[in-house]
Amino acid sequence: MSNLTLTINQQDYEFDNLDPRTTLLDVCRHHLHITGPKKGCDHGQCGACTMLINGRRINSCLTLAVMHDGDEITTIEGIGMPESLSELQQAFKDHDAFQCGYCTPGQICSATALIEEVKQQWSSHVTTDLQNPNGLLVQEIAERMSGNICRCSAYPNIIRAISQVLEKQVSNSSSVSDNAPNDKATDVTISGIWSPPPSEAQIGNQSIIKPTDYASNAANAQGERS
Ligand code: FES
Ligand code: FES
């Protein structure tokens, strides 16, 4: 049995005799009744349990609570509540980026960390120019969000919500302005699913989704799924 202090959403919780086999997800949901993080698969496959640990996203079903004594843990409740939504949460509402909502806390936690990764110019598996990564590419967003599955397939609207906040928050960074949307940008079809990652052909387009493209892309995505 273990004694530890967890700092979750800026509040300290003391534990005496916690079973060291308890996952961080179970501590939140079962011990503390912090139920924003969801248990989908409990195997690290779906991302519904995503939380932020010191600003980085993690599947909380795959990590033990005892490993996080002293860490800053943030769940969806710490990102924003109904009366104080974060910009990304508001964007998810505005773009209708959910249906049942079960995956949404994990999606928003993951996307919150994604935006910080882009600001820091971290590359991803589909980044073709490591010196000049462009997080605004639809393919980049899809790849970086590939650990979060949506059984309702709300992917097109999730991408729109993330794109809107990304464009706003990183539009002044040099890496993005170097690759800002231009007349040569070609349309990207959002397939409606982001796993497996986009094809080489899609990545080769190096296209950036533009607000004016949203309607046509949505129509394309709907057509492909039907
Ligand atoms: S519940 Fe943790 S990844 Fe699915
Ligand atoms: S909105 Fe239902 S699982 Fe994503």
TrEMBL record:
Residue ranges with Polar residues bias: 202-220
Gene3D superfamilies xrefs: 3.10.20.30, [2Fe-2S]-binding domain (1.10.150.120)
Highest taxon in the source lineage: Bacteria
Oxidoreductase recorded as keyword: yes
PROSITE patterns named among the record's database cross-references: 2FE2S_FER_1, 2FE2S_FER_2
PANTHER family cross-referenced by the UniProt entry: OXIDOREDUCTASE, IRON-SULPHUR BINDING SUBUNIT-RELATED-RELATED
Protein name per Swiss-Prot or TrEMBL: 2Fe-2S iron-sulfur cluster-binding protein
